[in-house]
Amino acid sequence: GNISSQFVSALLLISPLAEEIVKIRLTTPPESKPYLRMTLDCLERFGIRIVSSKDLRQFEAVKQSYKPATYEVEGDWSSASYFLALGALSGEVEVENLNPQSHQGDKIILNFLRDMGASFEIKQNSVIVRKSQLKAIPADLSDCIDLLPTMAVLAAVADGVSEFTGIFRARLKESNRVDAVRKALTRMGIKTIEEKNRLTIAGSSLKGSAIDAKGDHRLAMAFSILGSQAGETIINDAECVAKTYPQFW
């Protein structure tokens, strides 16, 4: 449970098809809990009922059949985070097709932006973010680990020292994302302190640099936003964004 919620979601999706009762018990506290809740919500939409404990460490499913349903896939708050950050750094940006009531964990980017002093407006199906003077914050990213690159970019230009915890799982992504973020920030003139489960970032003036995305789509997208503020910046391996956002460029 503390490595990735995706393993648990996969088991939940197939468990109703088993002939016997399936019981799942996590030996470690689950990370990214919002995504487990989204899995349970989605299953319910298709007629599947799974009993879960309040702490999402135990699940039980009996044999059931999926039922047809209409399901509208929401806009992705993870991908939207880069443009929301761009608005806070550069000027007014409106990101459409976002559900303000979404259960997606990365919707918490709005809370972080608010805490950093960003000006934004939530509409029925979109969010408008305006250029703001940002201040440093502490943040626990354990339930929204994909936001680490975006938060690092915001912290790089914020006044003060930001401290992000709950980040160990980011080392297990497409790259060692904690190490890669630290190295990229250092190349752009930002002082950082990297620990096992913590990254501290001191906001400062930026300098353009060549950034190695290391095949990591989120690094490429996040540091392109920071590069827009730093001057001439080159993102190597930029085509890696095709994994989640082929039209990003």
Automatic annotation (TrEMBL):
An example Gene Ontology molecular-function term: 3-phosphoshikimate 1-carboxyvinyltransferase activity
One Pfam short name: EPSP_synthase
Domain called Enolpyruvate transferase: residue spans: 2-249
Keywords: Transferase
PROSITE patterns xref list: EPSP_SYNTHASE_2
GO BP terms: chorismate biosynthetic process
UniProt-listed PANTHER family: AROM/DEHYDROQUINATE SYNTHASE (PTHR21090), PENTAFUNCTIONAL AROM POLYPEPTIDE (PTHR21090:SF5)
Protein name: Enolpyruvate transferase domain-containing protein
